[in-house]
Amino acid sequence: MTPLNPVLLTLTLLLFSALALALSNLSPGCANPQPPDSPTPGTPSTHQTIDVPSAGGLRTYLLSLPLNPSHAPSPLILAFHGKGQTASQFETQTQLTDPEFRLRGSIVAFPQGVHGQWLGDPTSPPRSERDDIAFARALLKQLMQEWCVDLTRVYLVGFSNGGGLTHLLACDPEVSAQVAAAAIVSGAFYKDRSLKGDGPLFGTCNKGEAPLPILEMHGGADPVIHYDGKSTPDGETYPLTEWLGDWRERNGCAGAQSELKRDIHDGSVQKTEWWCGIGKQGAKDVVVHYYIRGFGHGWPSTKGQDDDGQRYGPVGWNGTSDIVGFLAGKWLGGGEVMEGTRDEL
């Protein structure tokens, strides 16, 4: 019997290990046929439904599929609108599906809140009556069953009240175990005493042990969700410095850490990055914050928007570009994604 070549044997084992790892990162939808009457990849977003009894029954969302000729597994983004918005308005506001900004090959879902609001707003029903966390869990499961998703590249994005829900999802043990990173703009993080219901929401966090990189952008002159957390007509919110400190601790920054502050976008933004831990156990930029000087409550972009009165007009840069760049470098389990970040349609 001819002895096995040790080099060939090693290469074969490495190949099978890499193949097994790649297959483990694929959602069930990679092996399933496309759902009947499903939207066509590369076409405008379509309205979809999902039945979640604990979240109010039939819920809706907008779905945008990439033009993906290679049929490679796609990154998945769930993007949650602000209070009073629709999913369609948020798609237009963020431009997350525009070729100029889109994360390459990404599936983007824009869930719709009931009456334009989410759990975590003072006027929203308590979780026991309408559970938006259950909605997000069910939607993730459905999207992964129906479409070919890269399970290491699932992301959350949220604005204002939707940013508050993004925080709650990042603190949920089931969702946080599936998410590689999250990005929030003008996040509304209310003290629990301002909310309906007996159970804690923002006052507790049950995320997994692994760091969950998170980016938050906030206007220093926000008239709706004040930077220093002072009470608004709706209730008291967390000061941003306290909220950022809590996330540094959750992501393992209580011990060794480094802080990098620098001005970007012609000095209009102070960007702060925290790198936590030492050596191989360390995590790069697990908490990132944009303090936007003189900016109000809104999504930073160069385009005029309906809320220019409270966001204090357009800015000279696009927040979506920075957010996509942040998300593109993160995958579940750590490391860097080296490919280009923009879609090519």
UniProtKB/TrEMBL annotation:
Which keywords belong to this entry?
Carbohydrate metabolism, Hydrolase, Polysaccharide degradation, Secreted, Signal, Xylan degradation
InterPro entries registered for this protein in UniProt: AB_hydrolase_fold, FaeB/C/D
Catalysed transformations (reactions): feruloyl-polysaccharide + H2O = ferulate + polysaccharide
**Composition skew (Pro residues), residue ranges:** 33-42
EC number in record:
3.1.1.73
User: Which superkingdom, per the lineage?
Assistant: Eukaryota
MF (Gene Ontology) = feruloyl esterase activity
Localization of this protein:
Secreted
Gene3D superfamilies from the xrefs? Answer: alpha/beta hydrolase
Q: Name one GO cellular component term.
A: extracellular region
Q: Where is this region: Disordered?
A: 30-51
Task: Supply one GO BP term.
Answer: xylan catabolic process
| Residues spanning the signal sequence | 1-22
- Protein name from the UniProt record: feruloyl esterase
Source species, please?
Letharia lupina
